[in-house]
Amino acid sequence: MPKYSYLAKTKDAKTIKDIEDAASREELIAKLKARGLFIVSINETAGKSEKPFLSFFANQKGRRSSIKLYDLAFLARNLATTLSSGVTLLRSLEIISSQTESAKLGKILKECSQYIKEGLSFKEAIAKYPGAFSPLWRAIVEVGEASGNLPTVLDKLADYLDIRMEFERKIISALIYPLILLGAMTIAIGVFFKFILPKFVEIFRDFGVTLPLPTQIIFAIADFVDKNSIMVIIIFIGLIFAIVTFMRRPETKELRDRISLKLPIAGELFFLFALDRFTSTLYILLDSGLPLVYALEISARGIGNSVIEKNIIFVKNKVKDGASLSREFSKLNMFPALIAEMAKIGEETGSMPEIFKKISIHYSKELSTRVERMIVAFEPMLILVLGVLIGAVVISLFLPLFKIATGGGM
Predict the structure, then answer these.
(1) Same domain, 180 and 253
(2) How far is residue 330's CA from residue 335's CA, in Å, rounded to a whole number?
(3) What pLDDT, on the 0 to 100 scale, is given for residue 13?
(4) Which of 165, 282, 288, 304 could connect to 299 by a Cys-Cys bridge, CB 3.0–4.6 Å?
């Protein structure tokens, strides 16, 4: 079972620092909250030598320049803790800016502090950095400031970000082995065609054996790779560059999003991922007290797929004009009937946040299950492809050897 080191505060501001076993980060968070503790930070321990090594680099002036999901979760959790403990917003931002491992986020927080001193609200300050703070962040802060409940909504935001981090960690961990296997397979095939097969070509040429068609095809590929290896590498790099450029161009976003949803197998995963993000974002916004219309608009922006976003914005506009959310969702074939039916229950009972919490949990579990199944199936498929390739090469090499051994084809 993993070990986690945590820093927490009691209601009387006493600091508690300890290490505890837990199945996951979420389980430890639930345990600490049940004890009435305010969580400052939680980190998975990774051996005695690794922690000082990492902390050494984290505390240097040259901290990493990127802002990761972990940094934003750290900010939300710590800000909720310090504010609920009675620390002022300016002092809280000052403390967190010196603690964060992201130099870029630390700089942004210091600048936000200055904007707040000049009279801006916290929401207005972070709105100046859309690259760091998503619409969800800005909406949560706006609701918290308007209701005077900023620590509570930030704590909910931190829980949401922790769940996202845990999901991403599971996906990355599951993909490590297949990616290593794919890389090793690519390198092995490249080395074989570049250095080994040309030797067999010379041997068979010296014997003057007539090569079967499969062997001729394999040798033709090997000869092409041997003579044009630099060109092959350039074409491969150019292809990757072209794909990356296409993926980054804003004008091709809608086309990319449409194609991604129609891909076999992967298309269903992309759609489930979008549904999971939409329902979980909508839940946290509604639970924080945001009006439904505004929550729909912000949730749509955070999906990451322009096709689904347009459909949700269409629903939002209809709801703004007085239409029923469940009825508008039922009219769109894109969305599962579950969303419309559950939304109808939420409208009838007045428990829309709780309903979308249940929907988000459902899609989160379904997405995790689908991804895990796909990765489990991906590994044997790679091994099968590698086996077929190796088998084809071996057979193509043995056919001429049989001819030589039997004296045929000379």
Answers:
(1) yes
(2) 8
(3) 54
(4) 282
φ, ψ (nearest 5 deg) of residue 132 = -100, -40
User: What is the C-alpha separation between 292 and 86, in angstroms, rounded?
Assistant: 31
Distance between CA 312 and CA 208 in Å, rounded?
69
Do 382 and 255 share a domain, yes or no?
Answer: yes
Burial class (CB in 10 A: 0-12, 13-18, 19+), 43: middle
- Same domain for 243 and 207: yes
Nearest to 32 by CA among 48, 49, 19, 51: 19
In a domain, 20, yes or no: yes
Whether residue 106 is contained in a domain is answered as: no
Distance of CA 62 to the CA centre of its chain: 26
Helix (H) or strand (E) holding 9: strand 3-9
Q: Strand 15-21's sheet: what is its strand order?
A: 15-21, 3-9, 38-44
Give 343's contacts (C-beta < 8 A, 6+ positions apart).
Answer: 325, 326, 329, 352, 355, 356
* Same domain for 402 and 274: no
Number of domains in the chain: 3
pTM over cut 0.70:
no
3-state secondary structure of 7: strand
CA proximity to 346, closest of 315, 325, 318: 325
Which residue range is the domain that position 230 belongs to?
175-259+378-406
What secondary structure letter does DSSP report for 2?
-
99-134 pLDDT, tens per residue?
Answer: 888 999 999 999 999 999 888 889 999 999 998 998
Contact 108/36 with Cβ under 8 angstroms? no
Residue found by looking up tokens 């030797």 in the block: 199
CATH number at residue 40: 3.10.20
Give CA 292 to chain center in angstroms.
Answer: 26
Q: Are 32 and 8 in contact, with CB atoms under 8 Å apart?
A: yes
Residues 334, 186 within the same domain? no
Domain edge (last residue) among 16, 40, 60: 60
* Residues 110 and 73: beta-carbon distance below 8 Å: no
Among 28, 45, 60, which residue terminates a domain?
A: 60
Residue 241 lies in a domain: yes
Q: Looking at residues 14-30, what average pLDDT do you find?
A: 76
Look up tokens 């922690």; give the residue.
51
**Containing H/E element for 3?**
strand 3-9
